[in-house]
Amino acid sequence: MPTTAILGLQWGDEGKGKLVDSLSAQQDFCVRFQGGGNAGHTVYPPGGKIVLHHLPTGVLHKDCINVMAQGMVADPFKLLDEINEVEVRGFKLAGRLKISDRCAVTTPMHLSLDAGREDGGSATKVGTTQRGIGPTYADRYDRIGVRMADLLDGTTLREALSRAVSVRACQMSVEPNVDAMLKPLREAGDKLRPYICDTALLLAEAMKEERRILFEGAQGAMLDVCQGTYPYVTSSHTTAAGIAAGSGLLLAPQDVIGVSKAYCTRVGDGPFPTELADAMGEKLRQKGGEFGATTGRPRRCGWIDLFALRYVCKISGVTRIAITKLDVLSAMGELNVGVGYKGWKEPGLPADIRQFTALQPEYKTLPGWDEDISKIRSLGELPATARSYLRFVEEYVGVPIGIISVGPEREASFFSEGAPKA
Ligand code: IMP
C-alpha cells in the first residue's frame, strides 16, 4: 500500500491542511511528524471552519487514526483545548488519536524563553509564532527536554523540569518555579494519558500490515532547520528528510505531494527574493486573505519563485505538485514568475544568509486571465492563459502538477493528469 506525504514547498501556509483533509478520507493513518502549535491548518468541514495546530488533519475523518509522532513538540494545555474544540464539533477522538510518549513538551518556561528572544531586538529576533517551538526543540537536543511520558508520573516530571530549569535559569530574568509548573502539567498528563503510546511501534506495525499512511507536513521546505533560510527558519525538519526521524521509521513515501501557492507568501523575518512590497503585494494579501492562521500577522506576499521551488522539489523527491490559490491570480494583469537571481549561477540556493538576502530576482512575465475561476472543477475549463501558466511552472520545475486548487472548499480542488495542455 503506498505511503503518501504532503509537504509545503515554500515558507508555510501553502494550503496543505485542505489537501490533507481531502486525501485523508481514504487513509488509515494521518501522521504529523514535526512542528507543533506553530502550524495553522485551516479546513472547512461541514459545519464551518476549523484551524488545527497540533492535531493531524485526519481527525476530521472518522475512520482515520491520527498520530502525533515523536518528531513533534506539543503544548499540553493548548493541545487539550484543541482536542476539546474538535470533540465539541462532533469529531470524537477516543481510540483515534495516538500521541507519541516521546513527543517533546512545551512548558511555560519555553514560552518565556521564546518571547524573551523575540523581545531582544533585531540581533536575536526571528519573527517566531511565540509558541515556544525553538526552545522546546533546543532542550530536546540538549538532552534536558520534557517528554510526553514524563507528564504521567510526578517524580519523573519533577526530575525532568528540575534538570531543564537548572540549565536554562541563567538565561531568564526570573527563575522558573518547578513547583508551579508541576501540578498543571501533571493534570494535563492525566487527561492526555488515554492517547499517549509508542507511536513508532504502532506505525511500524501499520507499515507491515500495508495500511494506508499519509504523512502531513507542517510549515514549508524553506523553513527547514537545515535546508531553509537559516537562521530565519523553524526548528524542525520540514522536508521529506524529516519524515523518517520524526516518525521513528525508515521510510521514503512513494508519493510525495509538494504544495505551493500559485504565488508566494512568508510570515516572520528573513529573506524573500520575490517579495512585492508594493500595491500588487497588498492586492495579493487582501484577495488571498493572507493573514496568519496561528498569529493573525499579515503575511508578506510576492510572486512564485520557481528557482527555489525547483530546488526544494529535488531535495524532497517531490513526485507531483499541488498548486493552490490559483483563483487569487485572476484579474491581476500580467503575472511574473521568478526564474533565477541576477548574477547567481549556482544550481542551488546559498547557505550564507547574507548572500541569500542579497538575491535579486529575475522574472519571466506571463499573460494573466480576467475570469473568475473559483467555480471551475477541471483543468480543461480553465482559461488558456491559466493553463499556460501552470504548464510553465511544471516545465521549469520538472515535476508534474497533479492537483489544482481554486478555493477553500473541500470540492474546490481537482486532479490534473500529467502536463496541463493549453
Ligand atoms: P517558530 O516555528 O514559531 O519558531 O517560528 C520560526 C519561523 O517559522 C517564523 O518565521 C514563523 O513565522 C515561521 N513559521 C512557523 N510556523 C509556521 C507556519 O505554520 N506557517 C508559516 N510560517 C510559520
- How much of the residues is beta strand, in percent? 15-25%
Q: Which homologous superfamily in CATH is the superfamily of the largest domain?
A: Adenylosuccinate Synthetase, subunit A, domain 3
CATH topology of the largest domain: Adenylosuccinate Synthetase, Chain A, domain 3
The CATH level-2 architecture of the largest domain is identified as Alpha-Beta Complex
The overall average pLDDT, rounded, is: 94
Number of strands: 19
Rg for CA atoms: 21 Å
Task: State the helix count.
Answer: 12
Structurally, how many domains make up the residues? 3
The molecules bound to the chains, other than polymers, are: inosinic acid
Protein architecture, described:
There is one protein chain. With 422 residues, this protein is of the alpha/beta class. The protein has three domains: 3-99 and 197-247, Adenylosuccinate Synthetase, subunit A, domain 1 (Adenylosuccinate Synthetase, Chain A, domain 1); 104-192, Orthogonal Bundle (Adenylosuccinate Synthetase, subunit A, domain 2); 261-415, Adenylosuccinate Synthetase, subunit A, domain 3 (Adenylosuccinate Synthetase, Chain A, domain 3), CATH 3.90.170.10. The protein contains twelve helices and 19 strands. It has helices spanning 16-24, 76-88, 108-118, 133-141, 154-168, 178-192, 199-208, 241-247, 279-288, 306-316, 353-358, 384-397, and strands at residues 3-8, 29-32, 41-43, 50-52, 65-68, 73-74, 97-100, 104-105, 196-197, 213-216, 255-261, 264-266, 300-302, 304-305, 320-324, 335-341, 361-366, 401-405, 413-415. The strands form five sheets. A ten-stranded mixed beta sheet has the order 9-7-5-2-10-1-11-15-18-19, sandwiched between helices. α3 (108-118) crosses α4 (133-141). The radius of gyration is 21 Å and the shape is globular. The structure holds inosinic acid.
